[in-house]
Design brief:
alpha/beta; Molybdenum Cofactor Biosythetic Enzyme, Chain A; Molybdopterin biosynthesis moea protein, domain 2; Molybdopterin biosynthesis moeA protein, domain 3; 4 domains; six-stranded mixed sheet; five-stranded mixed sheet; binds ligand LQZAQKY5; binds molybdate ion; MoaB/Mog_dom
Length: 395
Amino acid sequence: MRSVDEHLADILLTVRSLAPLEIELEGALGTTLAEEVASPVSLPPFDNSAMDGYAVRAEDVAAAPVTLPVTGDIAAGDGRPLVVGPGTAMRIMTGAPMPEGADAVIPVEWTDGGTARVTIERAAPVGNAIRGAGEDVRAGDVVLPAGTLIGPAQLGVLAGVGRRRVLVRPRPRVVVISTGAELAEPGTPLAPGQIWESNSYTLVAAVREAGGDGYRAGIVADDAASFLDQLDAQLLRADAVITSGGVSMGAYEPVKEALGPLGTVRFDRVAMQPGMPQGFGVVGEDHIPVFALPGNPVSSFVSFMLFVRPALRKMQGLPAGPTPTVRAVTASPLRSPRGKRSYLRAVLAADGSVTPVTRQGSHQLAALASANALVVVPEDVTEVPEGATVEVIPL
Ligand SMILES: Nc1nc2c(c(=O)[nH]1)N[C@H]1C(S)=C(S)[C@@H](COP(=O)(O)OP(=O)(O)OC[C@H]3O[C@@H](n4cnc5c(N)ncnc54)[C@H](O)[C@@H]3O)O[C@H]1N2
Ligand code: MOO
């Protein structure tokens, strides 16, 4: 049997980062920057007021209370070249450019709010409530390095430095194909021997959480030819394909039967529980990665977390390695088979304790849904006492 680490290493060696692409800012959320972005101008580009109030010369209000004539208003966006002369004030709004001569802003709350004349109750130091040009960014500064994952704040700064388009690695498009003659679409009646298909919903959602765009390609019955037809049709729109089911030792294993002979997808037994039968390789002219995951619902999800998630990160140009773990302390004893790395479904509490859920079967989807973590038990450990420190993958 292969180890989990060997299988992941092989996947990460095979999978490549997606080619960079220039896109509109609107579509950039969740993509990874493929260029370094510098600001063409300083931000703020000019000295401006941080408050609604009065632009003054600080020396004129040093002996507050004082009353000064108000020579005009400056709104945000006012581009006129304005000057505050000695012994005068101008009303100014937040974001408006500072007029020449003024070196402080008095917030309106410190005044009587006058429009022709204003009485100022408090003195203020030079620079009061002024946001200096370049305080945030100086012209030419890099605001985002290549490799940054673009979230809401990063989108904001791209717009803030005037970008309309950016060079990114796109979100990977991942097609999910479920195989099994027993599978019925949820929302349709179950015939005898059938179950409702669930893996594709879990996997598409997991793809999205991992930063990709997942598509359900529906159900393929247990027949290698229709599986290959469906795969061919889907390759056009896929950066990666995930299949579930059809990879173990049964008489009807369409994924293994269809992909095995290609020679580019290998099927292995990986020393883990759940998720032992695994297939991985590339298909088609473009060498699209295919993850052939086991059909048991818990097995396919755990396999996703361990193998597909790191691969999607690599495709996005993000640092990729084993799925991160945190430490926790067991609230009850655990058991694990010798020679396999176990991923026990568990509840991780805020106090750092972790309790396995009672049902650990790889078909027990409801038990998985009641868990929020996987406790990792190493290959050589068969029993873990209560109170032991363990590694946990938060879900
Ligand atoms: N003789 C052996 N039998 C099995 C072995 C083995 O080593 N020798 N391995 C077992 C393990 S471990 C796993 S895991 C499963 C993997 O089987 P397959 O990947 O071939 O999956 P299927 O047989 O198609 O399905 C397994 C199970 O999961 C249900 N299933 C499948 N797809 C879905 C879906 N999309 N939504 C919901 N449920 C699904 C399916 O009905 C089966 O109950 O093989 C063991 N057998
Ligand atoms: O290895 Mo299987 O995934 O236990 O059910």
